[in-house]
Amino acid sequence: MKKRILIIEDEVTIAELQRDYLSIDGYDVQIEKTGDGGLARAKKEDFDLIILDLMLPNIDGFEICRKIREVKNIPVLMVSARKEDIDKIRGLGLGADDYITKPFSPSELVARVKAHIARYERLVGSIEKKNAAINIRNLVIEKDSRRVWLENSELMLTGKEFDLLLFLAQNPNRVFSRDELFDKIWGMDACGDISTVTVHIKKVREKIEMDTSKPQYIETIWGIGYRFKV
Fold first, then answer.
1. How far apart are CA 230 and CA 137, in angstroms?
2. Would you call 134 helix, strand, or coil by DSSP?
3. Rg, the chain, Cα only
4. In the predicted model, what is the mean pLDDT of residues 54-78?
5. Which residues pair with 75 in a beta bridge?
6. Exposure check for the chain: N or C terminus, fewer CB within 10 A?
7. d(CA 114, CA 121)
8. Are the CB atoms for 116 and 27 separated by under 8 Å?
9. pLDDT digits (tens, 9 = 90+) for 155-189
10. CA 219, CA 205: separation in Å to the nearest integer?
11. Where are the alpha helices (DSSP H) in the chain?
12. What residues have CB less than 8 Å from 130, skipping those under 6 apart?
């Protein structure tokens, strides 16, 4: 799928030149000639990068950048004929990822667009990997943040309750005895006995099951142990 770019620029000749060079490079480029129109599309539609002129009718690029940053984190490249450092500092301070002064070569613009999209994708990829979650029906288990959600409501689990739930969810449809679960979660050298597994299973069920007598997630396999059903 082509990467989508929005150009917010009131000088038609400049906007079309930018569009042509980016289109040749394989981008899907849209143009908005007014600040109001550009801001509305930036907030409503999905774009991979925005090229934002500083001087626009109705609303300037600074304000547009600020409003975009309230709702989206995609790369924003601010362009302007104003070369004063104060403008660059202000633009970058409002959340712009780059500030390019006119005139600039179209090839430089394309290179910067490629670099910022690639950097953003690497960042998003690393965040998604870090915050990898298990999604099973209405239950979401965030492994790294150690948070659990049921139908968009966060559940409060103790450390061992979370460890137990996560272990079972990571090994779905496999039956574990109480001895195995005690060994995996508490460790062979832990104080206590396997009855704590039963207690913790009960507590977890009370938090994640709609009806603990008919569990959707953690099943009891009588005479053997427990299984996380998917």
1. 8
2. strand
3. 26
4. 90
5. none
6. N
7. 11
8. no
9. 999 989 999 999 999 999 999 999 999 888 887 55
10. 10
11. 12-24, 35-44, 61-69, 85-93, 106-130, 159-170, 178-181, 195-208
12. 144
CB–CB of 172/229 below 8 Å? yes
Q: 74: how many CB neighbours lie within 10 A of its CB? A: 20
Q: Please report which helix (H) or strand (E) contains residue 155, including its range.
A: strand 153-155
Put simply, whether the predicted model's pTM sits higher than 0.90 gets the answer: no
Rounded to the nearest 5°, which phi and psi values hold at 122? Answer: -65, -40
Separation of alpha carbons 164 and 7, rounded Å: 50
Backbone angles phi, psi at 68, to 5 degrees: -65, -40
Q: Specify whether the CB–CB gap between 198 and 178 falls below 8 A.
A: yes
107's tokens:
């090839």
